[in-house]
Write a structure and sequence with these properties.
globular; 32% strand; nine-stranded mixed sheet; two-stranded antiparallel sheet; 11 strands; alpha+beta; single chain
């Protein structure tokens, strides 16, 4: 059986899943494309997050991509003008809550992005400059605890306003528009 692999720019407001059992209506990945039976998202982006999401029919590929050997890079818009001290703190690892206990994140790569990245309009307006300045930061991790990036920026005093995953391993979001899906032969990770 040959497996199929997809690269998706997950839009804001969608769940990274195909089935949702609770009563409230949610937007699901199957609304974006006619994926074959057995397709699964590799990792997740929460409903409020956007960006690169890989999908596959191959469970072994899913394990490889989710491993700690594969970096995931995020561009994050934060509340306020982030300081180099906050960046350095995240790079060393910060304490966040995870499963009811404290967790120290692994060292990561992080730097300030000086030019506002162009991702197109988000489904929901974040806010405008009247509410204070914002800034952008790149954070690259090889672990993925629940809402980890959001918890990391909050732990250093700069809550996340917008979160976009731009890279998984050597696969980049590039110019994929929100909701766009591309089928590939392999991920080559």
């Amino acid at each position: 059986m040959s497996h199929r692999h997809f690269i998706l720019h997950k839009p804001y407001g969608y769940l990274s899943q195909f089935v949702y059992e609770l009563k409230r209506k949610k937007k699901l990945l199957g609304e974006l494309h006619d994926f074959p039976a057995g397709t699964m998202a590799i990792g997740r982006l929460d409903e409020d997050s956007e960006g690169l999401l890989l999908l596959t029919t191959d469970g072994k590929m899913s394990e490889i991509v989710r491993s700690k050997k594969v970096d995931k890079e995020y561009y994050v818009q934060v509340d306020g003008i982030i300081s180099q001290e906050a960046i350095d703190e995240m790079k060393r690892g910060v304490e966040i809550g995870f499963n009811g206990t404290k967790y120290l994140t692994k060292p990561c790569e992080s730097f300030i992005i000086n030019e506002v990245p162009i991702f197109g309009e988000r489904g929901k307006k974040i806010r405008d400059e009247r509410h204070g300045p914002t800034s952008w930061v790149s954070i690259t991790v090889n672990e993925g605890k629940f809402r980890q990036i959001r918890k990391m920026t909050a732990a250093v005093g700069f809550p996340t306003l917008r979160l976009v995953r731009i890279r998984i391993g050597n696969i980049h979001l590039n110019d994929l528009q929100a909701g766009e899906v591309v089928e590939v032969n392999t991920f080559g990770i």
